[in-house]
Structure formats: structure tokens, C-alpha cells
Amino acid sequence: MRAVIAEDSVLLRIGVVRVLEMAGFEVVAEVGDAEALLAAVEEHRPDIAVVDVRMPPGFTDEGVRAALVVKRQWPQTAVLLLSQYVEERYATDLLSANTSGIGYLLKQRVADVEEFAATLRRVAAGGTALDPQVVSQLLVRRHSDPLDRLTPREREVLELMAGGRSNAGIAEQLVVSESAVAKHINSIFAKLDLPKADADHRRVLAVLHFLGVA
User: Which of 74-78, 134-138, 192-196 is predicted most confidently?
Assistant: First the structure.
């Protein structure tokens, strides 16, 4: 079977390529953004596309939106989404559009090579695969505190945002890259159900949530 991989992290992309090749897949293209993914799927018509949820340029939901396009325009191509953390809204969006040849896994599952390879084959054959943590999140009551959805690192980022730190200041404090900080902040916006609007406005709303005002 033939596969296309869309992942902006070079190291993870190399790892996924190796796993797919070990599982007997032919990797016909590997790309780093959603636009290139769509071009690769149109050119190669693969059996499966392995797609990162968040990719350049915005690191928000580019992968999910591209996956929806793939399933709409090339329904014969299965899609396996990989995410750093559980994002209930994105899983729901994908499953509501199509449940055949769909998978949604946390990136940590790639480390279990045999299980990951089995999941790839199942999804490529038209099946559905959801990460156990994704299933658990989908069953969580809607009325829970949105702050409970944040990871410890995201809480750290939000605390620093509340302290008035810029992205550069947060990156320096946590000893990470500014792009990593941007990913965390976009995830915070999504988990707090903040609508897409002016970035500074959402930043204020996120801090208000943290302070218990909103």
C-alpha cells in the first residue's frame, strides 16, 4: 500500500516513514504543510495519508481541514491524524464527516511500532481507529471546567501569559522555541473554546478564564 506523510517535525516525520516502510507501506511523498499534502494526494492518490493535526503556517487546525478536503475529494484515501494531545473538537469534526478509513491517534502511539503498524493497516483498509484517550475525552461531560483540559505545560504557559509575558518571554522562561509556545497557546485557545478572532483578544479571554473572571 502507498502512503503520504504530512508532518512539520522532521524527526517525527523520519520516524513515521521508517515505521510505515517496516509495515510494508511504500511512502510516495513526505511533506511539511497542509498545502503540500493536498498536492501530494492529488498527484499520487495514496491508500493512506498520515497527517499532523497542527502544521504551518498557523499551527492550529491546518491538518484537520486538509484531512476533511482529502476525504471529500479523494474518498478512497484513508486518513490517520496524529496529535500531540487530545483535541475533542477536531476528532468530532473528522468523524462527523466520514467514519470510513479514519484514524485519530496521539503521537506517543508511534513508539509502539507493532500496534501503530496494525492501526495503519486497519485504517488503510477502510476501518476506524480512535486513541483510547480521545475516546475518554469524547465521553467527558461538557460542563466540566475547561481549564481541566489543559496539560501541565499549557497551564504553565497560561500562567506566564497572565503575568504579561510575550511569546518570546515565555519561550525564554520555559527554555523552548517560540514556535513551541505558539503551538501551546493555540491549543489553549482551542481547549477553552475561544472563537477564532483577533489573536490579542483571545489572549485576553484566555487570561480571564485563568483568573476565574470569564
Answer: 74-78
